[in-house]
Amino acid sequence: MSAEITPNDHFLTVDELSKRGLSHYKINKLVASGVLVKVSRSMYENTAYSGDESDFSIVSAFAPKCVFCMMSAARYYGLTTYLPDAVDVAIERSMKISTLPDWPAVNIWYFPHKRYSSGITAASDNSGDLRIYDIEKTVVDILYYRNKVGIDETKEILKNYLAREDRDLICLHRYADELGCRKILGTYLEVLI
User: Fold this and answer.
1) pLDDT along the chain (193 residues), means of 10
2) Helix (H, G, I), strand (E, B), or coil: what is residue 83?
3) How far is CA 132 from CA 65, 102, 117, 127, 140, in A?
4) What is the helix, strand, coil percentage profile of the chain, to 5?
5) What is the pLDDT of residue 15?
6) What is the pLDDT of residue 127?
7) Number of C-beta neighbours around residue 23 at 10 A
8) Closest listed residue to residue 74, CA positions, set 3, 179, 164
9) 31 pairs with which residues across the strands?
10) Cα–Cα distance measured from residue 161 to residue 168, given in angstroms and rounded to the nearest whole number
11) Which 8-state DSSP code applies to residue 111?
């Protein structure tokens, strides 16, 4: 293993490798020797990584501009007991993801600019930082796409959100107004409260 790469480095971009003094020639030698695996045009995986693996960190390496959303975000916030069979990520409709990992499965949601860009927050899990929608934006997105997510899952998520002490109903209503599901939110709140 190269001295510039440690077992704590899971995914590294070409820029990060260059800043560590590795030329393209050295990077290609590390790939040829099996130390690095090329994930995409600008991303490499360290085969000697010894830290915790996370679905979120793996997907972020393949899609750096993605935002974790829908059921993956609901699970992150503890709003559902449902275990998704794929990692849900949002990208803007004009963006492209050229390569996806073999594992975990990824479910891509193509959002219009307004829906994609609102509510993004920084968070972290056991393997690093990630971009995820805040809890209120997550609830509103799930309400909006309730027919794709599932009605029972949607009810569970909204019910669990309303039971939280840190809920922000003003923010929830603001997102519902902004993203076109005020009426849906009102209907669900009438039923659940």
Assistant:
1) 72 86 88 87 82 83 92 96 94 88 91 97 82 98 96 96 96 96 92 77
2) coil
3) 11, 22, 11, 15, 14
4) 40, 20, 40
5) 87
6) 65
7) 10
8) 164
9) none
10) 9
11) E
